Protein backbone atom coordinates (compact mmCIF):
# COMPACT_ATOMS: atom_id res chain seq x y z
CA UNK A 1 0.00 0.00 0.00
CA UNK A 2 1.10 3.55 -0.62
CA UNK A 3 -0.32 6.85 0.64
CA UNK A 4 1.17 8.89 -2.19
CA UNK A 5 -1.17 11.73 -3.23
CA UNK A 6 -3.94 10.48 -0.93
CA UNK A 7 -5.34 13.00 1.53
CA UNK A 8 -8.17 12.98 4.01
CA UNK A 9 -11.52 13.91 2.48
CA UNK A 10 -12.40 15.84 5.66
CA UNK A 11 -9.29 17.69 6.86
CA UNK A 12 -6.96 17.16 3.83
CA UNK A 13 -4.09 15.79 5.97
CA UNK A 14 -1.92 13.00 4.57
CA UNK A 15 -3.34 9.55 5.27
CA UNK A 16 -1.70 6.51 6.84
CA UNK A 17 -2.09 3.02 5.35
CA UNK A 18 -4.44 0.91 7.49
CA UNK A 19 -5.15 -2.43 5.76
CA UNK A 20 -6.11 -4.09 2.51
CA UNK A 21 -9.36 -5.94 1.82
CA UNK A 22 -11.18 -7.60 -1.02
CA UNK A 23 -14.36 -5.76 -2.03
CA UNK A 24 -17.20 -7.44 -3.88
CA UNK A 25 -15.16 -10.67 -3.68
CA UNK A 26 -13.18 -9.36 -6.65
CA UNK A 27 -10.95 -6.31 -6.04
CA UNK A 28 -8.08 -5.99 -3.58
CA UNK A 29 -8.19 -2.39 -2.39
CA UNK A 30 -6.50 -0.28 0.28
CA UNK A 31 -8.05 1.45 3.29
CA UNK A 32 -6.42 4.49 4.88
CA UNK A 33 -6.82 6.38 8.15
CA UNK A 34 -6.35 10.06 8.91
CA UNK A 35 -4.02 10.52 11.93
CA UNK A 36 -5.61 13.91 12.67
CA UNK A 37 -9.41 13.49 12.54
CA UNK A 38 -9.59 9.69 12.44
CA UNK A 39 -11.56 9.40 9.21
CA UNK A 40 -11.09 6.10 7.37
CA UNK A 41 -11.47 5.93 3.60
CA UNK A 42 -10.72 3.59 0.74
CA UNK A 43 -8.48 4.29 -2.21
CA UNK A 44 -10.21 5.99 -5.15
CA UNK A 45 -13.33 3.81 -5.59
CA UNK A 46 -13.07 2.75 -9.24
CA UNK A 47 -15.49 -0.16 -8.64
CA UNK A 48 -18.58 1.90 -7.69
CA UNK A 49 -20.41 1.64 -11.01
CA UNK A 50 -20.41 -2.12 -10.63
CA UNK A 51 -21.30 -1.91 -6.93
CA UNK A 52 -24.43 0.11 -7.75
CA UNK A 53 -25.86 -2.16 -10.40
CA UNK A 54 -28.40 -2.78 -7.62
CA UNK A 55 -28.98 0.29 -5.44
CA UNK A 56 -30.19 -1.81 -2.49
CA UNK A 57 -27.87 -4.71 -1.77
CA UNK A 58 -29.12 -8.23 -1.06
CA UNK A 59 -27.30 -8.17 2.28
CA UNK A 60 -29.28 -5.17 3.59
CA UNK A 61 -31.82 -7.35 5.39
CA UNK A 62 -32.16 -4.70 8.11
CA UNK A 63 -33.77 -2.16 5.77
CA UNK A 64 -37.31 -2.50 7.15
CA UNK A 65 -36.44 -2.72 10.85
CA UNK A 66 -34.03 0.21 10.49
CA UNK A 67 -36.68 2.40 8.89
CA UNK A 68 -39.29 1.48 11.50
CA UNK A 69 -36.85 2.46 14.25
CA UNK A 70 -35.82 5.65 12.45
CA UNK A 71 -39.42 6.69 11.84
CA UNK A 72 -40.02 6.91 15.60
CA UNK A 73 -36.79 8.79 16.26
CA UNK A 74 -37.37 11.24 13.41
CA UNK A 75 -40.98 11.84 14.43
CA UNK A 76 -39.99 12.56 18.03
CA UNK A 77 -37.16 14.89 17.00
CA UNK A 78 -39.28 16.90 14.56
CA UNK A 79 -42.33 17.30 16.79
CA UNK A 80 -40.15 18.43 19.71
CA UNK A 81 -37.59 20.61 17.91
CA UNK A 82 -38.95 21.76 14.53
CA UNK A 83 -42.18 22.97 12.90
CA UNK A 84 -44.08 19.74 12.21
CA UNK A 85 -46.58 21.54 9.96
CA UNK A 86 -43.96 22.17 7.25
CA UNK A 87 -42.53 19.95 4.50
CA UNK A 88 -39.64 17.51 4.98
CA UNK A 89 -37.37 15.60 2.61
CA UNK A 90 -35.76 12.18 2.88
CA UNK A 91 -32.71 12.45 0.61
CA UNK A 92 -31.48 9.15 -0.83
CA UNK A 93 -34.79 7.70 0.33
CA UNK A 94 -34.54 4.36 -1.47
CA UNK A 95 -37.85 2.61 -2.00
CA UNK A 96 -39.66 5.31 0.01
CA UNK A 97 -40.29 3.16 3.09
CA UNK A 98 -39.34 5.86 5.60
CA UNK A 99 -41.35 8.52 3.79
CA UNK A 100 -44.43 6.29 3.88
CA UNK A 101 -44.00 5.57 7.60
CA UNK A 102 -43.58 9.25 8.44
CA UNK A 103 -46.54 10.31 6.32
CA UNK A 104 -48.57 7.68 8.18
CA UNK A 105 -47.52 9.44 11.37
CA UNK A 106 -48.66 12.79 9.95
CA UNK A 107 -45.47 14.46 8.73
CA UNK A 108 -45.46 15.90 5.20
CA UNK A 109 -42.39 14.01 3.99
CA UNK A 110 -41.13 13.66 0.41
CA UNK A 111 -38.58 11.31 -1.11
CA UNK A 112 -35.52 11.96 -3.29
CA UNK A 113 -33.35 9.23 -4.82
CA UNK A 114 -31.94 9.21 -8.34
CA UNK A 115 -30.61 5.65 -8.06
CA UNK A 116 -33.59 3.71 -6.73
CA UNK A 117 -37.20 3.10 -7.75
CA UNK A 118 -39.83 4.85 -5.66
CA UNK A 119 -42.22 2.08 -4.58
CA UNK A 120 -43.81 3.16 -1.31
CA UNK A 121 -43.89 6.97 -1.66
CA UNK A 122 -45.46 7.34 -5.12
CA UNK A 123 -47.03 10.83 -5.50
CA UNK A 124 -44.74 12.11 -2.74
CA UNK A 125 -41.44 12.33 -4.57
CA UNK A 126 -39.45 15.54 -4.89
CA UNK A 127 -40.28 15.37 -8.60
CA UNK A 128 -43.95 15.88 -7.63
CA UNK A 129 -43.08 19.33 -6.27
CA UNK A 130 -42.50 22.50 -8.27
CA UNK A 131 -39.02 23.99 -8.19
CA UNK A 132 -40.12 26.81 -5.87
CA UNK A 133 -41.60 24.25 -3.45
CA UNK A 134 -38.35 22.35 -2.91
CA UNK A 135 -37.27 23.99 0.31
CA UNK A 136 -37.85 22.03 3.50
CA UNK A 137 -37.90 22.46 7.27
CA UNK A 138 -35.48 19.55 7.59
CA UNK A 139 -33.79 17.08 5.24
CA UNK A 140 -32.89 13.60 6.42
CA UNK A 141 -30.07 11.65 4.79
CA UNK A 142 -29.80 8.14 6.15
CA UNK A 143 -27.05 5.66 5.31
CA UNK A 144 -25.67 7.82 2.50
CA UNK A 145 -22.58 9.60 3.86
CA UNK A 146 -20.53 6.39 4.02
CA UNK A 147 -21.24 5.89 0.29
CA UNK A 148 -19.62 9.09 -0.99
CA UNK A 149 -16.02 10.07 -1.74
CA UNK A 150 -16.76 13.80 -1.32
CA UNK A 151 -18.81 14.43 1.86
CA UNK A 152 -18.68 18.21 1.43
CA UNK A 153 -20.26 18.03 -2.03
CA UNK A 154 -23.10 15.95 -0.56
CA UNK A 155 -23.50 18.30 2.41
CA UNK A 156 -23.80 21.32 0.13
CA UNK A 157 -26.45 19.56 -1.92
CA UNK A 158 -28.39 18.91 1.29
CA UNK A 159 -28.03 22.56 2.27
CA UNK A 160 -29.73 23.52 -0.99
CA UNK A 161 -32.86 21.88 0.43
CA UNK A 162 -32.69 22.84 4.11
CA UNK A 163 -30.48 24.40 6.77
CA UNK A 164 -31.41 21.55 9.15
CA UNK A 165 -29.80 18.22 8.22
CA UNK A 166 -30.34 14.90 9.99
CA UNK A 167 -27.82 12.21 9.07
CA UNK A 168 -27.34 8.58 9.96
CA UNK A 169 -23.93 6.97 9.60
CA UNK A 170 -22.27 4.72 12.15
CA UNK A 171 -19.29 6.26 13.95
CA UNK A 172 -15.95 4.44 14.01
CA UNK A 173 -15.59 2.70 17.41
CA UNK A 174 -13.23 4.67 19.64
CA UNK A 175 -11.97 1.89 21.89
CA UNK A 176 -11.47 -0.85 19.32
CA UNK A 177 -8.33 -1.79 17.46
CA UNK A 178 -9.02 -1.86 13.72
CA UNK A 179 -6.43 -3.60 11.59
CA UNK A 180 -8.62 -5.43 9.06
CA UNK A 181 -12.06 -5.23 7.48
CA UNK A 182 -13.14 -8.10 9.75
CA UNK A 183 -12.72 -5.88 12.83
CA UNK A 184 -15.84 -3.78 12.14
CA UNK A 185 -19.06 -4.89 10.43
CA UNK A 186 -19.74 -1.47 8.92
CA UNK A 187 -16.92 -1.75 6.38
CA UNK A 188 -19.16 -4.22 4.48
CA UNK A 189 -16.55 -4.94 1.79
CA UNK A 190 -18.79 -7.55 0.18
CA UNK A 191 -21.04 -4.77 -1.17
CA UNK A 192 -18.29 -2.38 -2.27
CA UNK A 193 -20.55 0.58 -1.42
CA UNK A 194 -19.14 1.82 1.91
CA UNK A 195 -16.05 3.89 1.18
CA UNK A 196 -15.84 6.68 3.83
CA UNK A 197 -16.13 6.27 7.60
CA UNK A 198 -16.37 9.01 10.21
CA UNK A 199 -15.46 9.89 13.77
CA UNK A 200 -17.21 12.50 15.89
CA UNK A 201 -14.22 14.72 15.09
CA UNK A 202 -14.91 14.24 11.36
CA UNK A 203 -18.52 15.35 11.77
CA UNK A 204 -17.53 18.28 14.02
CA UNK A 205 -15.21 19.55 11.27
CA UNK A 206 -18.06 19.40 8.74
CA UNK A 207 -20.31 21.35 11.13
CA UNK A 208 -17.54 23.90 11.76
CA UNK A 209 -16.95 24.46 8.04
CA UNK A 210 -20.59 25.49 7.53
CA UNK A 211 -21.13 27.29 10.83
CA UNK A 212 -23.51 24.64 12.12
CA UNK A 213 -24.16 23.15 15.54
CA UNK A 214 -23.75 19.38 15.80
CA UNK A 215 -25.95 17.21 18.02
CA UNK A 216 -25.50 13.44 18.12
CA UNK A 217 -26.38 10.25 19.93
CA UNK A 218 -22.67 9.43 19.65
CA UNK A 219 -23.35 6.33 17.61
CA UNK A 220 -25.28 6.63 14.38
CA UNK A 221 -27.67 9.62 14.34
CA UNK A 222 -26.42 13.20 13.92
CA UNK A 223 -28.16 16.57 13.55
CA UNK A 224 -26.55 19.59 11.88
CA UNK A 225 -28.46 22.82 12.46
CA UNK A 226 -27.84 26.56 12.82
CA UNK A 227 -30.15 26.41 15.85
CA UNK A 228 -28.52 26.63 19.25
CA UNK A 229 -30.50 24.13 21.31
CA UNK A 230 -30.53 24.15 25.10
CA UNK A 231 -30.54 20.37 25.20
CA UNK A 232 -29.15 17.78 22.78
CA UNK A 233 -32.30 16.19 21.31
CA UNK A 234 -30.39 13.06 20.23
CA UNK A 235 -28.53 12.40 23.46
CA UNK A 236 -29.28 8.97 24.85
CA UNK A 237 -30.79 9.09 28.32
CA UNK A 238 -30.88 6.00 30.49
CA UNK A 239 -32.12 7.18 33.90
CA UNK A 240 -35.23 5.60 35.43
CA UNK A 241 -37.25 8.74 34.69
CA UNK A 242 -36.13 8.65 31.05
CA UNK A 243 -37.01 4.96 30.75
CA UNK A 244 -40.52 5.62 32.09
CA UNK A 245 -40.95 8.59 29.74
CA UNK A 246 -39.81 6.55 26.74
CA UNK A 247 -42.19 3.77 27.67
CA UNK A 248 -45.10 6.20 27.78
CA UNK A 249 -44.08 7.66 24.41
CA UNK A 250 -44.05 4.15 22.97
CA UNK A 251 -47.54 3.43 24.31
CA UNK A 252 -49.13 6.68 23.20
CA UNK A 253 -50.08 7.14 19.56
CA UNK A 254 -48.33 9.85 17.49
CA UNK A 255 -51.50 11.94 17.42
CA UNK A 256 -51.90 11.71 21.17
CA UNK A 257 -48.33 12.92 21.68
CA UNK A 258 -48.24 15.84 19.31
CA UNK A 259 -51.59 16.56 17.72
CA UNK A 260 -50.15 15.56 14.32
CA UNK A 261 -52.74 13.71 12.24
CA UNK A 262 -51.86 10.84 9.90
CA UNK A 263 -51.75 11.66 6.18
CA UNK A 264 -52.62 8.09 5.16
CA UNK A 265 -56.26 8.70 4.18
CA UNK A 266 -55.33 11.94 2.43
CA UNK A 267 -52.67 10.09 0.43
CA UNK A 268 -55.10 7.32 -0.53
CA UNK A 269 -57.43 9.97 -1.95
CA UNK A 270 -54.56 11.52 -3.91
CA UNK A 271 -53.55 8.13 -5.29
CA UNK A 272 -57.11 7.35 -6.40
CA UNK A 273 -57.53 10.74 -8.05
CA UNK A 274 -54.28 10.43 -9.97
CA UNK A 275 -55.04 6.86 -11.03
CA UNK A 276 -58.43 8.01 -12.38
CA UNK A 277 -56.81 10.92 -14.18
CA UNK A 278 -54.28 8.56 -15.75
CA UNK A 279 -57.06 6.31 -17.04
CA UNK A 280 -59.05 9.23 -18.44
CA UNK A 281 -55.98 10.58 -20.23
CA UNK A 282 -55.41 7.31 -22.11
Automatic annotation (TrEMBL):
Under the heading Pfam families, the entry gives:
Methyltransf_23 (PF13489)
Keywords attached to this Swiss-Prot or TrEMBL record, sorted alphabetically, are:
Methyltransferase, Transferase
Q: Name one GO molecular function term.
A: methyltransferase activity
Indicate yes or no for the key word Membrane.
no
Q: Which InterPro entries match?
A: SAM-dependent_MTases_sf
- An individual GO BP term: methylation
Give the protein name, as stated in the record. 2-polyprenyl-3-methyl-5-hydroxy-6-metoxy-1, 4-benzoquinol methylase
Amino acid sequence: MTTEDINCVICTNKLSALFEAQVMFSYNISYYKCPVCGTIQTEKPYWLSEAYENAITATDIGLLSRNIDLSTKVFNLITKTFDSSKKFLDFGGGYGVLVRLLRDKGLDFYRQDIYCQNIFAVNHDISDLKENERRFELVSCFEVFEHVADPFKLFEELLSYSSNILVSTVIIPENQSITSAADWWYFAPETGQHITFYTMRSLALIAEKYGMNLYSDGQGLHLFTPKKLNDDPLKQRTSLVDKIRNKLIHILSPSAKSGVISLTQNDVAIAKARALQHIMNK
